[in-house]
Known about the structure:
Layout: H1 5-29, H2 65-94, H3 98-106, H4 124-136
Amino acid sequence: MRWPLTLALGLVALAFRDSVRENQALLWSSSNFKRPGSTKDRACRPACYTPPVDSGPSSLAGWTPEQIDQGRRWVKAWKEAGEVMERLRRTELRQLDAHKALALLCGSADYHVAPRAPKPTSGLVEQQRWFMRAANGE
């Protein structure tokens, strides 16, 4: 069964919104955040934290609990698959032979003849010549 991308994004947004609300409640109830130089024992919001804007009802409001549960399982499965795929990618990159990869990408290219042969100069000499002309007003 294929899941639409909006399902995944909706579930991620739902999980993020829930975690933000939990963290927000924890932050605001904590007495660890005091104003600098304040002797009063009252909590204040950290300067760098902006509370989220509540933009209305969730896009998942019409979903059944079974659909939400299925979606969460789908997100969890892709999260686990992503970790496995990342390990596989790193393993393949470690085993990669650069010369073989270049040969596969470029084919049978001769780097001793133009246009792939390196140029005798990098162009810096020509660039300096242009700068000298500009400075002398030519």
